[in-house]
Amino acid sequence: MKTWAKMFLIVGALGLLVFLFPINRVSNHLQARGDASQKKPMAKNNSYVYSWPKCQQNMSAASISGFETVPQHIQDFLYYRHCRHFPMLLDLPDKCGGIDKSADIFLLLVIKSSPVNYERREVLRKTWAKERLHNGVWIRRIFISGTMDSGFEKKRLNKLLELEQREYNDILQWDFSDTLFNLTLKQVLFLEWMERNCPKARFLFNGDDDVFANTDNMVDYLQSLKDNDGSKHLFTGHVFQGTRPVRWTESKYYVPVQVQESNSYPPYCGGGGFLLSGHTALVIYNMSQSITIHPIDDVYMGMCLAKAGLSPVPHMGFRTLGLHIPSKKVDPHDPCYFKEFLLVHRFLPPDIYLMWHKIYDPDLKCGHNSHRS
Ligand SMILES: *[C@@H]1O[C@H](CO)[C@@H](O)[C@H](O)[C@H]1NC(C)=O
Ligand SMILES: *[C@@H]1O[C@H](CO)[C@@H](O)[C@H](O)[C@H]1NC(C)=O
Ligand SMILES: *[C@@H]1O[C@H](CO)[C@@H](O)[C@H](O)[C@H]1NC(C)=O
């Protein structure tokens, strides 16, 4: 055989080897066994999934005094409190159009939603969380989710979210269990995602999927802040001041001394929904890195604000405890009560759908100040 032909064969054989054992796969494998503190992006279905070593249960949590006396879900919390990184199952790396383009998003709706809440997501997509241009600025939507159950049931729900993602492109999902005491984790994971993918979004609405949020009013309010384009502090909603941990064991918000010893909470906004600037979101994320996770997510946001020397500001338009309807003779679903608010807590999907349409009814006539009683 001629020399050039041999060379050709050797080069071909090398090419085949690289094809069979891709370099990046070999290095990922080494990575997984090596430096645990490094994150390594891996391509998967056109999106990037950050892989971290699985977070280990902290066995010494069991030696905290009185550990065996606290309920199971709180023991669970204590065992996994230090875990802050979980693999992403659904990502939206291009949601904000890149770091610089993210400045074009005026209001990013970040809605906590568990996988089972399909109907709530569907109705929000058609109503207050619709992606749209309002008053010349963009409103965008993201649901944030974990996983539920295990085995077949977990797979089934993950598949549901995957199908929704294909149609709507509006879900971030991480592989952690979506429980009440993991909501803070969900928040922190979102903020980390935001810093990476959407750092210049002007304002964020952060809230639950069972509220009625008047997002048009939110945009109007935010546009009226003449000296803040999202680059200054803003954190507003229904402010709780001078509250303390619930020490009553039957409450779902029960926080024993094993979780928090101190008997007071900083001021915070009710987690049903609040507004914040992009600037404040990044400050909170920054502070969160050195604050131990607290299971109540809205309290934790307050802790981060306090550490940054910032406070939440009350806004009368947020009714996270529901509306006070003055008289039994008044229809509690009278749209005039809802037209002027920014948020009212606890709405069923059909009621959200109805209310969204009622407040835009051109024939709607509301008496002067009828909503302010
Ligand atoms: C594990 O729990 C113990 C007891 O609460 C705590 O002192 C320690 O810092 C925890 N370790 C980690 C890695 O969080
Ligand atoms: C939070 O999620 C992790 C990962 O799924 C889980 O191990 C832990 O038990 C969860 N914590 C709570 C309080 O549910
Ligand atoms: C984050 O915090 C560190 C100090 O902990 C500070 O040096 C840095 O400027 C902060 N960055 C932002 C964006 O707030």
Automatic annotation (TrEMBL):
The keyword Zinc does not apply. The keyword Acyltransferase does not apply. GO terms for cellular component: Golgi membrane. InterPro entries: Glyco_trans_31. Its EC number is 2.4.1.-. Pfam families: Galactosyl_T. Keywords: Glycoprotein, Glycosyltransferase, Golgi apparatus, Membrane, Signal-anchor, Transferase, Transmembrane, Transmembrane helix. One of its GO terms (molecular function) is N-acetyl-beta-D-glucosaminide beta-(1,3)-galactosyltransferase activity. It is a single-pass type II membrane protein. One of its GO terms (biological process) is poly-N-acetyllactosamine biosynthetic process. It is found in: Golgi apparatus membrane. Pathway: Protein modification. It comes from the Eukaryota. Belongs to the glycosyltransferase 31 family. This is Hexosyltransferase. It comes from Lates calcarifer (Barramundi). The lineage of its organism: Eukaryota, Metazoa, Chordata, Craniata, Vertebrata. The gene is LOC108881193.
